[in-house]
Amino acid sequence: MLNITPRLIQFVTQHPRAWELHHTYATLIAQYGGLADALGLLPHLLKVDELTQECLLLPIAAHGDTAVAQWLVEHCLAGVSPKPGITSEVLWALGFLGYEPAEALLIEHLTQDKTADYYSLQAVCLGLLHFSCAAYQDVIRREVEACYGQNLFKEFVPALAYKTGAPDLLDGIYELGRTTASTDCNGGIFLGIALYGARDLFKSVLWDEYWEAGGYGTGTDRWAFVGTQILGLTLAELYQETFQHNVDYRLDIFHRLLAARLHWPLSPLHFVSPPNETCADLWLLLNRWSNPNQTQPDFLLRAEGELRDKLAQDLAALRSSLERETLAELLSLTDTPNST
Fold this sequence. Notes:
Layout: H1 5-14, H2 19-32, H3 35-41, H4 50-63, H5 66-76, E1 77-78, E2 81-82, H6 89-96, H7 102-112, H8 118-128, H9 137-145, H10 167-178, H11 187-195, H12 199-206, H13 220-231, H14 235-241, H15 247-263, H16 279-286, H17 298-301, H18 305-331
Antiparallel strand pairs: 1-2
């Protein structure tokens, strides 16, 4: 067990509303911990509020095993839905853990639970992405096609389209995003295009102002960033493309992608490995000075006004992330003496 895991348990017990602190510690444990950490946190899942549950589920899902998944089903679900007081993120966690019996459960929740809210449907769809869904291709097609022509719909259902292997559904979700879909409801379309491996199409919608990939109020920026992870697109590659056309808009999109990278270092998809691009790599990329007499790095001189302020905030956040990343490497987050 990592030496910071008992510390997290202490924080969630003594400071139940310190959610940012909980999230920071839980993220580190998810990145560097193991099964012992997941098992140590599991009993506390039922003792905290839903926001803290979401934090604890990060390392529990990252390092849990079949027994952990079975425990979640037994203690957290009533039928196909979370029990009262249990976060819907438990549905995502079952998929992330690869717990095969959950596949049918999640499909039933998606198609039969008429009381399901936005967050539970998001968790269900993200969870289903971890299974083959081979037996449910017709079901998925019906769900995807039910989104066509709509302004608002089950936002993450289009992400499941690739599970059918049908190229016409790629065309369908692209047309949905290009025509009727609200930009408040297109995160699943970004994921779906990326999951099809349509790299050029993904980049075309990423840079297209109509799609509003940088929408942070609706979370589109996060799902656009996850799409870049799926496709293996690095921020360094995208940074070079910002200067090819419509520079101010593209720099704003880059700002949102970088912010997403720093705030959500973990991918919500177990099968996606983020690009091998450290905070140190990004710091070197964005702190180039073409002239020693400049007062700011090239990155900031490319923008003006409010956008420049945003990019300056990105650099400050990047520095903080760089310090945490370096400290984690230095200390190696060593085990406690009584670790198992």
